[in-house]
Design a protein that fits this description.
Chains A, B: InterPro entries: Glutathione-S-Trfase_C_sf, Glutathione_S-Trfase_N, GST_UstS-like_C, Thioredoxin-like_sf. The structure is a homodimer of 283-residue chains. Chain A is an alpha/beta fold and 283 residues long. Chain A is built from ten helices and six strands. In chain A, strands 1, 2, 3, 4, 5 and 6 form a six-stranded mixed β-sheet that branches. In chain A, a hairpin with a 6-residue loop joins strand 4 and strand 5.
């Protein structure tokens, strides 16, 4: 019986005009990138333009995530895996194609287990509960960031992505207002009010990284000395600002007692890691 | 050198007119009660009326928690502990008096360690991060519950507590509106809208208890098979409704796939546990 063989994971990210390794910018896709890099999973990657996401997922038979405003989303991965069958010693070929960051995280952690690959849920169900809670808290931060950052996201997209993003976001998120009219003036009162609301939501992460309220804890991660998926959720969010609005990102880094900066610095290598670029023709 | 001796923990709860063991009703104080019962820490207890909380804490030299609307809060505990001094074999007497549920939780877990007492943070920093995240999420649920439950809280308070509660809450939370005018009509549209907002916030707990989105996980707790402080935060919140608004509580129990009910049932014994009643004269 031959040992199981696998082709690399293929990872679909959303493209931008930023030069590599900062081409990856989405808070959602970066979660998956961080996992692949942290777990040292070999992977190839394709950067996809916004209007191509739906045709891509349809061609991969990945169903719509929801019936809301954004039913087709990245990240997505494909995993071709050949496993020897127990029954007849012949090999069985399977292909898994999934999207949505949490299912991908659970899949990758299962498919690439310890001890070869460190777990992103190092404390089992506790880590998973923590990740789901943090994802919920990050969603609140993303909502609070919309008017601040969405107009800046547009700046870094490829031309086809810009057209799609403007049309869908202006209609779906901002009631038809132009992106240029949504972003408050830099340094003005309105921006300050939005920042206060956002940084208020982020206060919980400062507390969590501090741990026991006394500032005495080991390790820079939510789980202490070992990174986990919960960290990658927050770091993906921070990287979104780092890519799109460096001034606001600097402000974020200054929150609390430096815990966010320490977390960022510990994870930066996994934010920037890249797979091998591989073209992808959408059928 | 004689072994360390300790007097029981003394626990201050907020009183109500409900008969024991349901006399304890506050989502905040119940967190501490759950810890004491789960960890099998011997304790005495006093039930305090709202207007007596500030004089009590002042007499115990417990400072105001914040400069907000409710600076003096229960739960609070007192711990008299005699420990043999390393230096001279004489014994040293210490008294710890603290309030605020998370500092109390961290204190009790440290002062009553394993293996004699099971930990409420069984996965160390991961459990603490989880608890801080859940506390934040529960605060959002408490905010969403105010208009629904505060008028019902009044019903179960002692007469002095009722006067204090009405005055402080009508002024501090409801802009001077009477408690009777805040609660929407049972079964009406306004109540339904509030319920939808609240149950929407609670959706994250349903997901967390389900675990991996596939409904396959071991154990009924956030951390799998072992209860932790994060569970007690949610159960304290659920018990608040069970005590004050049984109809809404039944609706909560029906959320999701039964995970909240299973959690409740697993924790019910610790919700109802009582310490030995001990009078307390406020100096």
């Amino acid at each position: 019986m031959s040992p199981p063989t696998t082709k690399p994971i293929h990872f679909f990210d959303i493209t931008s005009t930023l030069p590599s390794p900062r081409q990856s910018w989405s808070p959602n896709t970066l979660r998956t990138r961080l996992i692949l890099n942290y777990k040292s999973i070999p992977y190839t990657q394709s950067f996809i333009s916004y209007p191509d996401i739906k045709p891509l997922l349809t061609s991969l038979h990945i169903p719509a995530l929801n019936d809301g405003f954004l039913p087709y989303t990245l990240p997505a991965i494909i995993h071709h895996h050949h496993q020897p069958s127990d029954a007849d010693s012949s090999s069985k070929a399977d292909t898994t194609a999934i999207n949505d960051s949490l299912p991908i995280a659970l899949y990758l952690d299962h498919a690439f287990p310890t001890p070869q690959h460190p777990s992103i849920f190092p404390h089992g169900p506790t880590s998973i509960s923590l990740a789901i809670a943090v994802q919920h808290l990050i969603s609140a931060c993303i909502s609070r960031s919309r008017a601040l950052i969405m107009p800046r996201v547009w700046n870094i997209l490829d031309p086809r992505g810009q057209v799609y993003f403007r049309e869908s976001r202006e209609r779906g998120l901002f009631g038809g207002r132009r992106l240029e009219d949504v972003r408050p003036e830099e340094g003005g009162e309105e921006e300050e009010a939005m920042w206060m609301a956002l940084s208020g939501e982020m206060e919980v992460f400062v507390k969590m990284l501090k741990g026991d309220g006394e500032g005495v804890r080991e390790g820079v991660f939510f789980e202490g000395g070992k990174p986990g998926y919960a960290d990658f959720l927050l770091v993906g969010f921070l990287a979104w600002f780092e890519r799109c609005d460096r001034r606001m990102w600097e402000r974020m880094m200054g929150l609390g007692d430096g815990g966010l900066r320490r977390l960022w610095e510990a994870c930066e290598g996994w934010v920037d890691g890249m797979g091998e670029d591989a073209g992808w023709e959408i059928s």
